[in-house]
Amino acid sequence: MKKIMVKNVCFGDHIPKICVPIVGRSRDEILKQAELIKNESEKLATKYKDHEACKLSVIEFRADYFDEVTNTNSLRCLLKELREIFPDKLLLFTYRSEEEGGELRHDRAENMIADIQESAICSGCIDMIDVELMFGNYHVARIAASAHDSNIATIVSYHNFEETPHDDKLETYLWNMEYLGGDILKIAVKPQNKLDVDRMIDLTIRAVNGKLWENNIENPVAIISMGELGKITRINGNETGSCLTFAYVGEGSAPGQIALKDLYKKFSEIQL
């Protein structure tokens, strides 16, 4: 599996990069949350300065929570402010649909998703963008191409908050994600039992080592089994090769996320 560099951050080197989402609704709430994350990460960086894996690399702006996401000027101004708060972090832009666990409070936003994503790409403020595979092949390929033209990395993702689909279906999703332009291929699914969790761990290892049953992939993967059952998949990326994990400061954005301070502690114990 090849490594992907986004600025000075390497994905696919068996050190899972840590991402913290911002899920505020108003500009003031978002900026307050951003400052809280910045302060917490700076304290933890000092405490764990000798541990390479204990580093916050990515800030995810969950635009589906933002009340003014359909206002292009408000969105770009907010992205600029977030860029100023986190000049040394990768800024990931995500609009998650209701079907894949997002906040649906914007009557017009679902029909404007392409415009919203293009606005983020053209802002000059983001380093990465998340695009859901289920938005459709044409949409994913177009947004990925537009992002690449602006030197922005693309995460193509699939989320299922109901179940863990069969392995063959997930393998097909991974191949489609890469074919459509995904630099990082992300799957997050809900397990019904420990077997589902074990399947996702096995899928990650096979994907990373080129041992998928059908079409192998080259790009890094981030495969998460959500909830309490799947917490191990958020901390064992050094073993499986999963390249990205999510933690929270204040408020999480998905079931099973671990507090940033707790993730740092676990990483310091098991990885270095």
Q: Could you outline the blueprint of secondary structure elements for this entry?
A:
Elements: E1 4-6, E2 9-11, E3 17-22, H1 27-47, E4 56-62, H2 72-85, E5 90-94, H3 113-122, E6 128-132, H4 137-149, E7 153-160, H5 167-179, E8 184-189, H6 194-208, E9 221-225, H7 237-240, E10 244-248, E11 258-259, H8 260-270
Parallel strand pairs: 3-4, 3-10, 4-5, 5-6, 6-7, 7-8, 8-9, 10-11
Antiparallel strand pairs: 1-2
Helix pairs in contact: 1-2, 3-4
Summarize the structure.
The chain contains 8 helices and 11 strands. By secondary structure, it is an alpha/beta fold. Helix 1 runs parallel beside helix 2 and helix 3 (113-122) packs parallel to helix 4 (137-149).
Search tags:
272 residues, alpha/beta, 9-stranded parallel β-sheet, two-stranded antiparallel sheet, globular
Notes on the protein architecture:
It is a single chain. The chain is an alpha/beta fold and 272 residues long. The protein contains eight helices and eleven strands. It has helices at 27-47, 72-85, 113-122, 137-149, 167-179, 194-208, 237-240, 260-270; strands at residues 4-6, 9-11, 17-22, 56-62, 90-94, 128-132, 153-160, 184-189, 221-225, 244-248, 258-259. The strands form two sheets. A nine-stranded parallel sheet has the order 9-8-7-6-5-4-3-10-11. Strands 1-2 form a two-stranded antiparallel sheet. It is globular and about 45 Å long. The mean pLDDT is 93.
